[in-house]
Amino acid sequence: MNAILRILLLWAGFFSLANAQWVVTLPAVARVAEPLIGPVVVLLPPGQSPHHWALRPSQLKQLSQAEGVVLVSPLLEQPVYRWLMQHDKGAKTLVWSQLDGVVRLSGGHAHHHHEDRDHEKDEAHMAHINTHLWLSPHNARILMQALAAKQGVPVTHLHQVQAQLDKTVERVRQLLAPVRQRPFLVLHDAFAYFEHDFGLNKAGVVEGANGDIGVKRLLAMRTLIEREGIRCIVYPAHRSPRLLQRLVKGLDVKLQPLDALGWQQTHYNDWLIALAKGYRACLTY
Fold first, then answer.
1. How far is Cα 96 from Cα 141, in angstroms, rounded to an integer?
2. pLDDT tens digit sequence for 27-63
3. Are 136 and 184 within one domain?
4. For 92-115, what is each residue's pLDDT tens digit?
5. Residues 113 and 202 in one domain
6. How far is the C-alpha of 110 from the C-alpha of 73, rounded, in Å?
7. Cβ proximity of 123 and 72 under 8 Å
């Protein structure tokens, strides 16, 4: 019986390795990773906010069996990051925000980050950083390079994928050229990296720094809209537009939903094009 049990355990281990996949926290990360390494497991369930994690036993199992894990930042996916560190999965983990050369935005300014092994210090610094860094084509290239190195992806394949991204970036620039200078607002600052990389003219964010949208702030935003002649407000497609509808009541302002997390697309390049078309439609008047 012992011999049979050992054989069964060996076979179980073999199938576990054979079925091992990369796990990524967000669909946004999957859109970047999949052209390089094929299908990945997305940890975030549809409809759940990346700002509010509640890890289930099934998700912990996925993490424990993963060939590798990609997350955006220790702060955005804090429970995931802490679990990985507590279970000695650091060697299997890629933290996008900590990759050398990544651009991180804070208050409209860009910061090039070099790896900091003091994670507590990094988490404190990240509290002042916009963590929605996946919509920067520059940052996407950095993650592609890191994934290719970790997974042993052929250099020719990496270059092919990045060449397609370069073509997409040029197409996005063409689509946005006629409207780049026109001012707009965003409900939540989820698209800052796209706006930064393509030089769009964001005039403000409706939500306050702590996500507050009180009466005083709404009145200030209404004044800004009228003073600057703003006719476009962009908001994440998973958020309700009701508050914005009240904000712009009686004004000639378009409300444009855009995919902030990548649920509506299956490829990063298509997602960038869709965003460009959304901005252009909102800013064409």
1. 11
2. 999 999 999 999 999 999 987 888 888 899 999 999 9
3. no
4. 999 999 999 999 998 543 444 433
5. no
6. 16
7. no
Say yes or no: 103 and 180 in one domain: no
Does residue 135 share a domain with residue 236?
no
C-alpha distances (whole Å) from 28 to each of 99, 202, 251, 264 are 17, 22, 34, 10
Tokens of 79: 């429970």
Q: Which of 108, 124, 153 is the last residue of a domain?
A: 153
Buried b (16+ CB within 10 A) or exposed e, 43-82: bbeeeeebeebeeeeebeebbeebbbbbbbbbbbbeebbe
The answer to whether residues 165 and 107 belong to one domain is no
Q: Residue with structure tokens 């549809």?
A: 46
CA gap 103, 110 in Å, rounded: 6
* Residues β-bridged to residue 112: 103
Written as six digits, the tokens of 252 are: 């000639």
Nearest Cα to Cα of residue 228 among 192, 255, 258, 202: 202
- Is the pLDDT score of 17 beyond 80? no
197 with 273, same domain: the answer is yes
Q: Which domain holds residue 208?
A: 161-283
Give bridge partners of residue 183 from the DSSP assignment.
201
248 and 219 in a single domain? The answer is: yes
Same domain, residue pair 46 and 137: yes
Mean pLDDT within 261-270: 94
Contact 23, 66 (CB under 8 A): yes
Q: What pLDDT shows up at residue 49?
A: 81
Q: Which residue's structure tokens are 């967000």? A: 26
Residue that finishes a domain, picked among 89, 124, 153: 153
Number of domains in the chain: 2
197-208 tens-digit pLDDT: 999 999 999 998
Name the helix (H) or strand (E) containing 282. Answer: helix 268-283
